[in-house]
Design brief:
Elements lengths: L7 H12 L3 H14 L4 E7 L5 E6 L9 H4 L26 H8 L1 E7 L6 E6 L5 E7 L4 E7 L6 H6 L3 H21 L4 E6 L2 E6 L5 H9 L3 H4 E9 L4 E4 L2 H6 L4 E8 L5 H5 E2 L5 E5 L2 E2 L3 H15 L6 E2 L1 E7 L7 E2 L10 E2 L2 H24 L3 H50 L9
Parallel strand pairs: 1-7, 13-16
Antiparallel strand pairs: 1-2, 2-6, 3-4, 3-6, 4-5, 7-8, 9-10, 9-11, 11-16, 12-15, 13-14, 17-18
Helix pairs in contact: 1-4, 2-6, 6-7, 11-12
Length: about 425
């Protein structure tokens, strides 16, 4: 077969299938767009696990209606102007591919309204990125992106997701994704619906500590512990810091961790066979970092004394400051879920040492005698002895009184009997 250029339609589907390969991939791209638009409330609605209908609604600043046709074109973005801008980019999106890819594998509608618009505008797009229809209607500020019949033109992938177990697995991925964005964006309200049933929700809160508790459960307040530390790549030194210093630092590599406390039942309550409850972030981006998962699994399992390792319920957030951005690459894959960091191996080695040392400190605390508890038991036992003696005395006094009373009654009866019995000197009329 001779070498020839592929038709544009084939090229489009090949590229789009990499960017939007699943429902969770589509949801991720749309949530990131909403966060980049400054949204403080994001609502995700799925029908039939997202394959029939997928909708993401936000209250962000919206898009100027003259710009909407351009935003669906491939490789169009407002985030960067050239490749070198990637070093300092702070937005989630930057490739300019998400909406174009979604438009290629689903039927796409976008409704948007800015603060300057009197009404909202709804745009319907065709598979070739062209606007097929525009409608004006009442609506709130923000954007609603609706995708229907996902993978309608990719029969193999559509058939792959006909299996119910695969659809449920995809739903679990969507739920974890929404939970991840909820944790790392504390001030944003999130809600997830499937077939009109609310399956997850989180209200706005102040910081990552509170958002982690909101997502993982209130038992984390007592069963888990937080650590903040700074890592210096030039010296490979770690310094533990406070929450205030963590939030105010912006030019270093900062690490936040919420991990289970060292307790006797930690493996039962916080150990998992998978990583569904392990959340990792780099510069607020949910990522998959096997190195982080390995460190957490090793330290947790060693602390819990497990023969077979388990993954802990945990949150790890790494902030790479501007002075270290040259060593960070978030453009390894189209979905941006894997990153490269030049000092990652050194950082993980120090994180492993830090966490294991903290768990050893927990060992010492468990070994220390709880004198307060013993004093309480001593006092409690003394009180019990006093109460027992009191009861015994009361019973003894009570028995003595009853015996004396019985003697008095017996004597009275005997006197009465001798008084009224017939006998000598007694006259009965």
């Amino acid at each position: 077969m001779s070498i020839s250029e592929l038709p544009q339609g084939t090229v489009t589907l090949l590229k789009s299938g990499q960017v939007i390969s699943s429902v969770s991939g589509a949801v991720k791209e749309l949530i990131e767009n909403s966060l980049d638009a400054g949204a403080t409330s994001i609502e995700i609605r799925l029908e039939d696990f997202g394959f029939t209908k997928l909708e993401v609604k936000d209250n962000g600043h919206g898009v100027d209606k003259t710009q909407v046709p351009s935003m669906v074109q491939p490789h169009t973005t407002s985030k960067i102007r050239e490749f070198s801008d990637l070093v300092m980019v702070d937005s989630y999106g930057f490739r300019g591919e998400a909406l174009a890819a979604l438009c290629s594998v689903a039927k796409l509608k976008i409704r948007t309204k800015t603060g300057n618009d009197l009404v909202a505008s709804t745009f319907t797009f065709g598979p070739d990125y062209t606007v097929q229809n525009i409608e004006s209607q009442a609506g709130q500020n923000g954007t609603i992106v609706t995708a229907t019949e996902l993978f309608y033109n990719l029969p193999v992938r559509k058939n792959f997701y006909k299996d119910h177990s695969r659809r449920k697995e995809e739903m679990r991925k969507v739920e974890k994704l929404v939970q991840s964005f909820s944790i790392i964006n504390p001030s944003v309200r999130f809600s997830l619906f499937h077939n009109k049933v609310n399956i997850f929700g989180k209200i706005p809160c102040d910081n990552i500590s509170k958002s982690s508790v909101a997502v993982l459960g209130h038992s984390c307040k007592t069963g888990m512990v937080e650590y903040y530390f700074v890592f210096d790549p030039s010296t490979c030194e770690v310094e533990e810091i406070s929450l205030e210093n963590y939030e105010s630092s912006n030019d270093q590599i900062l690490v936040y961790m919420m991990v289970p406390k060292k307790t006797l039942g930690m493996s039962t309550e916080y150990g998992r066979t998978n990583t569904e409850k392990t959340f990792t972030f780099v510069n607020k981006r949910p990522v998959e970092l096997k190195q982080v998962e390995k460190v957490l699994r090793s330290a947790f399992s060693e602390a819990a004394g497990l023969e077979v390792e388990k993954n802990p319920v945990a949150v790890v957030s790494i902030i790479v400051g501007r002075s270290q951005r040259q060593s960070l690459d978030a453009n390894l894959e189209p979905n941006k879920q894997k990153i490269s960091l030049g000092c990652l191996n050194d950082l993980m080695e120090k994180t492993d040492q830090f966490l294991k040392n903290k768990y050893k400190e927990g060992d010492d605390k468990l070994k220390e005698p709880d004198t307060g508890h013993f004093e309480y038991e001593k006092d409690n036992n003394a009180q019990n002895d006093t109460a027992t003696n009191y009861v015994k005395d009361a019973e003894s006094n009570s028995n003595e009184e009853i015996t004396n009373k019985m003697k008095d009654i017996t004597e009275e009866l005997q006197e009465s009997k001798s008084l009224f019995s017939p006998g000598k000197g007694t006259n009965f009329l």
